[in-house]
Every structure is written in C-alpha cells, then in structure tokens.
Design brief:
alpha/beta; Rossmann fold; seven-stranded mixed beta sheet; 7 strands; about 45% helix; globular; disordered N terminus; binds S-adenosylmethionine
C-alpha cells in the first residue's frame, strides 16, 4: 500500500458520473475531484478508445454496477432504520459525503493507514473541512483486528449497523476476511448487515485468463496490493451461513447485468468471476 495511491475505481465512477442522468448507472460527483487530473485524463482517453474493454471485458461494467448495487442496498438499509455505517477499506468512497441521510448518522471510514492518509488530505482539499459525522479509523486488516481499532474509535455495538466492504476482500488473507466477518457477526445487533464484492478463485489462480487480472498482478509493486482471496462460484450462501449470517443474497454477473443494464446500456457487459454478496447478522 503506497501513499497517494489513486483509486482506479474512483476514476471509473467519475467517468460514469459525467454521462447524462438518463444514461448513467451510478453518480459520484466527488470521484473526479478526489483523483489526480492527469491520471483521470489518461484513463478517460484510453477508455474512449475502447482500451479498457479490450483488456478486461466487462470490468468497467462490473465496477459501475457494483457502485449502484451497493448504493441501492444502502438506501434500503436507510429506509429500515440503520443507525451506523462502517465503510471498510473505504479508499476514495464518497458515500459519506454524497448521501445526505448519512449526515444524521455516524459513519466510520476504516482503511489502511497509507490509503487513509491520502484520502484525508483529499477530503480536506475538496470539502474544505472535515464532516462532523465521519470518523476515520486506520487499520491494516492483515495485521490488526477491527475489535482493537473500531471499538476504541466510538463504534457502538448496540446500534443497527451496515458494513460496506467494496473492492477489498480479494486483497486480504483468508484469516483477515474471517476475522472481519467474525467482528461483524459478534459486535453488531441482529438485523445489521454487510455487503461486499469478491472474486472467484478461478480468476485469481489463472484458470480463467483475464487481462485485468494479469495487469493487477504486474502493477502490484505500485499498488502494494496482491490478489489473494476468492470464494468459489455458488458457495457464498454456505460460507456466510457458517459464519452466522442470514438473508444471504449473491449477485453474480448475470443478475447484475439484468438488473442494471437496460435500454441504452443493454449492450454493456459485466465480467464473469466478480460478484457481490449481502447478508444480515442473525439473532
Ligand atoms: C480497490 S480499493 C477500493 C476502495 C473503495 N472501497 C472503492 O471501492 O473505491 C482497495 C481498498 O482496500 C484497502 N485495503 C487493501 N488491503 C488492506 C488492508 N490490508 N488493510 C486495510 N485496508 C486495505 C485499500 O487501502 C483500498 O482503500
């Protein structure tokens, strides 16, 4: 993990957000402001030439519907009275700033210290001040437990909580994934929820060859993030049930495509091998 690392996922959100209201799938007005102008311009340029789609077909599609799907889940949780939101591996996630409803709640942005340092600088620059409802908690999931850091940062384990874990699990050890899920199951009341995306191991181990995966591997020296963790297709329900969760939904590429890509977007694709799971903490 390096300082000043710019999030490719934020660039994808920025590119989608520039489309008209009728066409775009997700909207994050902060994304473009949070990333370097140079890199944003470069990625947009190559994207317009079709380079991203050739290298990793359906990945831009996945990143776009992922943002939307998690936004929809967040809206549903707000409707049902969520009291606290924890954004794990927050990176340049701007939900704490773009959802007005979250300004009435407490939001914890948890991230690796190096990424968080650069996010805090960007928030200071773009917003001009720190939002009072957000608490920044620096944690390395691979070496520290949430228990250590979140509880001492004011997280209230009696409050109904939503945990958002977007774009992170593939970089963690299985032990880190387990201990994070155990924290959620043990330290939030029944009815709390978690949503996270994950990759199938067949992508990670090269059984299925994909350009963006080999790119991520070769950029490892720059991002400091290795692709480590995956969950096999069709096993998510059992995986989460064993860890104390209920109401499990597993949104695969077909579900995500059929749910979000209609009309002018119907020819867009969602890459196979990426999926989004959501679940509730059982009683
Ligand atoms: C691809 S970015 C996703 C950022 C953001 N959630 C999004 O979707 O735009 C991966 C995030 O995972 C975090 N991350 C990766 N490994 C981590 C670790 N060991 N401990 C804490 N955070 C980690 C990084 O700091 C980064 O913010």
């Amino acid at each position: 993990m390096r300082k000043n690392q710019t999030s490719m996922t934020a660039i994808v959100r920025g590119i989608e957000s520039e489309k008209s209201e009728n066409e775009r799938i997700c909207y994050d007005p902060y994304a473009r402001q949070f990333v370097s102008r140079f890199l944003y311009g470069l990625v947009s340029f190559f994207n317009d030439l079709g380079f991203s789609e050739r290298k990793g077909p359906g990945v831009m599609g996945f990143l776009t519907v992922r943002e939307r799907h998690i936004d929809e889940f967040l809206k549903a949780q707000i409707q049902t009275g969520v009291e606290q939101v924890v954004i794990l591996g927050a990176g340049l996630d701007a939900r704490a700033y773009r959802f007005d409803e979250l300004k009435q709640l407490r939001v914890f942005e948890v991230d690796h210290p190096a990424s968080q340092h650069s996010k805090i600088e960007k928030v200071r620059k773009v917003l001009g001040q720190f939002p009072a409802h957000v608490t920044y908690v620096a944690v390395d999931f691979n070496t520290q437990t949430l228990e250590q850091r979140l509880l001492e940062s004011g997280y209230d384990e009696s409050r109904k909580t939503l945990f958002i874990w977007q774009g992170v699990t593939q970089y963690l050890t299985p032990e880190a994934v387990d201990s994070t899920l155990a924290f959620i199951a043990d330290h939030s009341p029944a009815g709390s929820s978690v949503i996270f995306d994950y990759m199938y191991p067949t992508l990670l181990d090269g059984t299925i060859k994909r350009g963006e995966v080999s790119n991520m591997r070769s950029r490892r020296w720059a991002s400091g993030e290795s692709l480590v963790f995956g969950i096999p297709e069709g096993t998510m329900t059992g995986f989460l049930e064993q860890r104390g969760f209920t109401d499990i939904q597993d949104a695969d590429c077909k579900f995500l495509h059929d749910t979000y890509f209609h009309g002018t977007n119907s020819s867009r694709t969602v890459a196979y091998g990426y999926a989004i799971a959501s679940a509730k903490v059982g009683s």
